[in-house]
Amino acid sequence: MTIVAIVGAQWGDEGKGKVVDLLAEKADLVVRFHGGNNAGHTLVVDSVAYALHLVPSGVLHPGKTSLIASGTVVDPDALLQEIAELTDRGVAVGPDRLKVSDRAHVILPQHRLLDVAREAQGSDARLGTTGRGIGPAYEDKAARVGLRLGELRRLDDFRRRLERALVEKNFLLTKLYGMADLQVPSVEAIMERAKVWAEKLKPYLVDSAELVKRASADGRRILFEGAQGVQLDLDHGTYPFVTSSNPTAGGVCVGAGLPPRALDHVLGLVKAYTTRVGEGPLPTELHGELGERLRKAGREYGTTTGRPRRCGWLDALAVRRAVELCGIDHLAVTKLDVLQGLPELKIATHYELDGRRIDFMPADADDLARCRPVYESWPGFEADISKIRRLGDLPSEARAYLDRLGELAGAPPALISVGPDREETIVVHQYF
Ligand code: GDP
Ligand code: IMO
Ligand code: MG
Predict the structure, then answer these.
(1) Residue 225 Cα to chain centre, angstroms
(2) H or E segment to which residue 375 belongs
(3) Scanning 40, 264, 364, 412, which has its CA 20 to 30 A from the CA of 198?
């Protein structure tokens, strides 16, 4: 078994970075296949934390190749900054170790400005985006007016296409969103940066589908690192409160150029409770003291934006939907330690919608917002579990909770995380 996809089974921030880092020890190639620097993946190794946004989470292991594939959107300045910060911390990320697809689309200043301007329009229009320009960059890709990193090889063409694209965006920014002419980006200013991007990034550029094809043909172990989570999927999430790409396992094939049958395993990341950052329905959200307790104990503040995450009980309907949509065969359950000391643990098994009991997530976000969770109660556990490394050593209450989660979700846990550090992990089933 050589090709494994890791996907977030909830609303993002499930601990994908930690688990990818852990599994990367035995992988050859780690690939980001969608999204951009809206992601924030935290790894902790020997109590030292690293926050990654675009660079794949295998980068701390020497000798592994990291790939940012064609389905991603890349903010060149953000990527260069991330490379510089890692280099400063002694993590080598030269072009021999990090490869970036020449087909990945470029996030330009107008995309960030549009993202922020739209979000500032008032509460009705707000999605609570990360403000990184992700949506507008994917819009340009779909509208076939986007610029790709490979075009940095031909700056004359880059300039011509930029001129055309910028006319429309600057019209929106000034006429619709009221920005002054001096505040909007100019072709000259972007071209100045583009020269720097071209010089610094050209050595990293590759045909990413070709690289994946060769690695697969050579029997290499490949790990696909999802960003965000299934409930934020553009097609299958809580639209319109979603991101603009596909975090579902199908996104691996599109975003990396991998044939569907090439995936051997899909590992679904599940936080032992639920969090969401940004707007949109969250049926199991806890507004009072209990929500605050989870936020504090789990340090639930965004890695990318620092925003407090909304917290709630585990939603088995959301996880089961992710299992079904992605063909998840095992779960990796993270942050079980955060539940320590709670007298009672709850899992939503159904919703009540307009007086009816349902066992699925409705497609419409307004319907989902009206859903009231129907809970099952499980006894909590008192002991500190962060030092436990074997499933059998977990308190019986914690095991019962995990068993029930696996049963409701339709996939058993292969890995349980009991702390942020790489070492704080119980491995039940190994892929590599
Ligand atoms: P990602 O976006 O899915 O990679 O997740 P984030 O890194 O945004 O958020 C997960 C946070 O939880 C990070 O700060 C991790 O260091 C931390 N974390 C991961 N696993 C565990 C765990 O088992 N226990 C605790 N207490 N923290 C964890
Ligand atoms: P990781 O990879 C959690 C959310 C935003 C917002 C919505 C759209 O760390 O799990 P966008 O900027 O993508 O247009 O915002 O998606 N969002 C995330 N939430 N984790 C993430 O990534 C997220 N990336 C985007 O908060 O609600
Ligand atoms: Mg995150």
Answers:
(1) 8
(2) strand 372-379
(3) 40
Q: Is 231 in the pocket of ligand 2 (CB under 6 A)?
A: no
Predicted TM-score (pTM) above 0.85: yes
- Summarize pLDDT for 67-105 with one digit per residue, the tens: 999 999 999 999 999 999 999 999 999 999 999 999 999
Instruction: Could you list the beta-strand ranges (E) of 143-264.
Output: 205-206, 222-225
Report residue 65 as tokens: 């190749």
140: CB partners within 8 A, 6+ apart: 105, 111, 146, 147, 165
What length is written for the chain?
A: 432
pLDDT(1) > 60: no
* Whether residue 199 is found in the same domain as residue 252: no
- Residue 272 corresponds to which amino acid? A
Distance 11 CA to ligand 3 centre (A): 10
Find the 6 Cα to ligand 2 centroid distance in Å: 17
Grade residue 350 by pLDDT with cuts at 50, 70 and 90: very high
Residue nearest to atom 3 of ligand 2 (CA): 12
Q: Which two tokens stand for residue 118?
A: 């739209």
Q: Which of 86, 77, 148, 67 is nearest to 109 (CA)?
A: 77
Task: Identify whether residues 23 and 136 lie together within a single domain.
Answer: no
Question: Is the bond preceding residue 240 a cis peptide, omega within 30 degrees?
Answer: yes
Evaluate whether 346 touches 314 at the Cβ level (below 8 Å).
yes
**CATH, residue 160:** 1.10.300.10
